[in-house]
Specification:
- By secondary structure, this protein is an all-alpha fold.
- It has four helices and no strands.
- The protein has helices spanning 6-28, 33-52, 58-84, 90-121.
- It is elongated.
Length: 125
């Protein structure tokens, strides 16, 4: 049986929401510029998380997850911008921002833990 990986599952589910949001924004509002930026950053999270599974080193693993974290932060920015420019309602934005926030918390925690463990492994000079 395949072991469940929360960050892989959540990032894939988020990417699906982002793709669906992109389709909605382009069809319903004819909004192509911001929605394309969000499509790129929002789907990149999961791609980088998935890449991290096959990282060659701990540093490579952490780098991939840190990129995913930066992409999640960028996604939150685009979602907030879509809300402020009234392409998304507050309710729509809040829903997807909550999912994005969960990913940010998980990725922050993982990258911080790895950084802390690596700093403990380095002896004091």
């Amino acid at each position: 049986m395949k072991k469940k990986n929360v960050v892989i599952d959540k990032s894939m589910n988020f990417a699906v929401r982002i793709v669906n949001l992109y389709k909605y924004l382009t069809k319903r509002h004819s909004e192509y510029v911001i929605s394309k930026q969000l499509l790129r950053s929002g789907t990149s999270i999961g791609a980088n998380v998935r890449e991290s599974v096959y990282a060659q080193t701990t540093a490579d693993f952490n780098a991939k997850l840190y990129i995913a974290l930066k992409e999640a932060s960028e996604s939150a920015y685009w979602i907030e911008l879509l809300e402020r420019t009234q392409y998304l309602t507050n309710k729509e934005a809040t829903s997807i921002l909550n999912d994005c926030g969960e990913l940010i918390k998980i990725l922050s925690s993982i990258t911080k833990t790895i950084k802390d463990k690596n700093s403990e492994a380095i002896p004091n000079s």
